Amino acid sequence: MKKVSGLMVGLMLSASVLAGCAGGGGDSGEGGGERITLYSPETPEFTKELATKYEELNGSPVDVQYAGTNVLVNQMLAEKDNPKADVWYGGGGILPFEAAVDRGILASYIPDVAADWSEVEDGIKMKHGDGKYVGVEVFVLGFSYNTELVTEEEAPKTWDELLDPKWKGKIQFPNPAASGTATLMVMDQLMQRGEEEGWAYFEKLAEQANSMPDSGSAPTKGVAMGEAHIGIGFDFMAYEQKNAGESVDFILPDKTPVLVNPASLIEGGPNPEGGKAFIDYLLSEEAQQIMADAYHIPINSEVESKTDLTLEEVKKNAVDLDIDWVNENYDRVRNEWKDRFQ
Predict the structure, then answer these.
(1) What pLDDT digit, counting tens, does each position of 273-293 carry?
(2) Do residues 75 and 194 share a domain?
(3) DSSP SS3 for 201
(4) Domain containing 153: what range?
(5) Do residues 76 and 120 share a domain?
(6) Residues 304 and 229 in one domain
(7) How many CA atoms lie within 13 A of 318 on its CB side?
(8) CB contact at 8 A, 259 and 139
(9) CA triplet 258, 138, 54: central angle to 5 degrees?
(10) How many structural domains comprise the chain?
(11) Exposed, middle or buried: residue 90 (CB in 10 Å: 0-12, 13-18, 19+)?
């Protein structure tokens, strides 16, 4: 079986497609090469910044098309006979990319800088074995906490510590029936503990929660607003709040999902050479700095993280995730959550 570490956020509920053209109209930019079309569910401001820097460095215009992961995957499938995109970047981790591998929409391409990477390093799957995607940054699932309500010493350091009676009514986590992040949180615990013990764990965790919002980022925002002491979510969500001046910090649990957020070349895309060049760029110091400035953990060791976390540090906390089991059981686990808790 294929093993990977971590969760993703995975299959986000989507918004309608917003075409954010970072370059001008036409097939080529003045003085540059052919247009590159990028599909991404990452925030429009962030991806536009990446695109603008690429244009500045290379002269080729980049057309950023934004939507949720599910919408973009469905769009790529609908366009399979006449692809419109060159690159797909981001989706809350590797799960949607793994699910797309056998659907004929991803071409094989690994940048030279990643050619010598092991497929799995210290439990983290860094790239696809056949080159269908490559990781460009790292996400970690853990605990945000309100620093005015909880000290760093008091904050939970393991998933088991969330069950301490002192946190009853003070925790928020996303609804696994709606949030891909939370669904895979559940699946990770089921794999680590076994299904019987895993479901028993969530029976107890659900009793600790004062809310289970549908959005993956909502618990961290709830912590910032003082609606919860502890929230379950990804690291960058907490650091964004902290940088905005909110009383929020992040705990890296002892053992937790750690995953790369990938990029893929689109099979049959209109500008394959441009697509390859853009994926190369995503691993460059310039693009990695933009990711670091957005509180993502960069893969490029030459770029310093803007958070307290680094790739080398989080490797020690990564747990393995059986991607075959996830793909086979995703819908079943989500439906079972609905039956048990809703």
Answers:
(1) 999 999 999 999 999 999 999
(2) no
(3) helix
(4) 140-256+323-341
(5) yes
(6) no
(7) 28
(8) yes
(9) 165
(10) 2
(11) buried
